[in-house]
Amino acid sequence: MIKLIVARSRNKAIGKDNKIIWKKPEDMNFFKSVTTCGIVVMGSKTFESMNRKPLPNRINIVITSNPDKYLEHDSSSLFFFDNIDMALFRMLEIQRETTKDIYIIGGTTIYKEFLDRKIVDLIYLTEIDEYHEGDTFFDFDFDLDFVTYENENRELGNNCIVKHYISKKFGGISEEKVEGYPLITGYDKYSSKPIF
């Protein structure tokens, strides 16, 4: 399953100067509890904001126009790709081998890429009921493709509430959506085993 996880302020800001613009340990703890032991996918700016250090106890995939820049960081839990199709191919291979969930963690460009492809199954959206000045935003209109799963909404405290949105087309990736990789489908063609 491919999940997107994001926190935004009342004015839909998610960051400024490549940094988180609030201190909300409640949301950070939620993020950690959800993504630990999973596969996290991010852009290079998000990776840079983490001081070029992978998130521990997770497989980290970074999509960047210049993967050679990070050669010294490559490891068994950290991979770099220069396009989303190659990243998808690798993350789904890992998912088939490990049954780990995939989490899209930012930034704005990466969120948009995955939402535009309509391959996100679930969104965890932390709404922070405060105004924060920002230069990056999560302001996508995803209501046409997702429905609110209100039974799973959770108050975290400190003006934070996590809302859950489930894709109306639950099932995720089909081979048409990842050009050049015909084995990427909702099912493994050789075993008929679901990969989500």
Under the CATH scheme, which class? Answer: Alpha Beta
Mean model confidence by pLDDT = 85
Q: Which runs of at least 5 residues are low in confidence (pLDDT < 50)?
A: 171-196
Beta fraction: 25-35%
The dominant shape is globular
CATH level-two architecture: 3-Layer(aba) Sandwich
Number of strands: 11
The tally of structural domains comes to 1
Q: C-alpha Rg, in Å? A: 16 Å
Furnish the topology, listing elements before pairings:
Layout: E1 2-9, E2 13-15, H1 25-35, E3 39-43, H2 44-49, E4 59-63, E5 78-81, H3 84-98, E6 102-106, H4 108-116, E7 122-128, E8 136-137, E9 146-148, E10 154-157, E11 160-167
Parallel strand pairs: 1-6, 1-7, 3-4, 3-6, 4-5
Antiparallel strand pairs: 2-8, 7-11, 9-11, 10-11
Give the key terms:
disordered C terminus; 196 residues; two-stranded antiparallel ribbon; single chain; alpha/beta; Dihydrofolate Reductase, subunit A; 9-stranded mixed beta sheet; 4 helices
